[in-house]
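Handoff note, outgoing to incoming analyst
You'll be picking up this chain. Sequence as last confirmed:
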Amino acid sequence: MTDASDNNPRWLVDLAPEPASDAFAAWHLGARGSGTASFDLPMPALYSLSESWRSHGRLRGGQLGAARFAGDDDLMLGELVLSERDFGGIGTTTHEAFRRVLDYVPGSGYPYVLRIWSYFSRINEGAGSAERYRQFCVGRQLALERAWFEADPAATVIGLPDRSDRLRVLWLASKTPGQMLDNPRQMTPRNYPPEYGPEPPRFSRAALWQSPRGRALFISGTASVVGHSSRHPGRLDNQLAETKRNLDSLLKIANEAAGVDSQYGAGTVLRAYVREEEHFFATEAFLRDAFPGAAFAVLQGDVCRQELLCEIEGVHHF
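Most recent structure output, in case you need it:
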């Protein structure tokens, strides 16, 4: 098993062409995997990679109601996939999905949700409050109104570049709590004004988590947003630079909370989502220059606001 004594800067999450032999779960980016611990993202990628979540202790896996999960002594990844055809649209399907997740988590043995990913198609389709992302936020809010979270988990919501009717919700949960963080450059999402929809987004900018192996920062999907406003519409280069400023600000807050002085680099694993495949190589070049030594994957997916061309999430190991 991998632990901090191995001096591996990416002791929890790593990227490689094939899954690590000691992974309790693997995300397949740009390729299909197999097995109960395989989580596929059906979106184009610059390179096909496996994002391995390295195990600690005994492996676990199976079903939680309609969801499936894989875990170890510290963490579990769960996935629930529902069809909009069964629940009448993205808003009601989201409500049902999050309601089920909230029901599954307390009895799972991993009661602390650190991070949630949501993927569905046609995210920007619809006008005004009828936009599918805004209806997703309504459904999520209705479910989270009954949640026990002291602070909202970190999160990513990305549109799949297809026309499927499936909503995929994945969550990362722990046996020990994390510390949810905000970013001083950005408004707390639940305080967004009504211009962004009938219900605000519900997530924290990051989750700081301590384990016997070390400390990790789970970074939410981060884009070119300052305060609550999108910046640099139509300019990928400027949006990437603004996103980097947001990520730097967030790491400063995390370092203060952890009492350390870490930098992005060999211990950082990033996923970048870009709206257009033609932006793959420019984004790759930016990530290589802006985050020297970091591992990263570039995927095609739609960001929640139409004017935003890119979004970056990740895991930073301290």
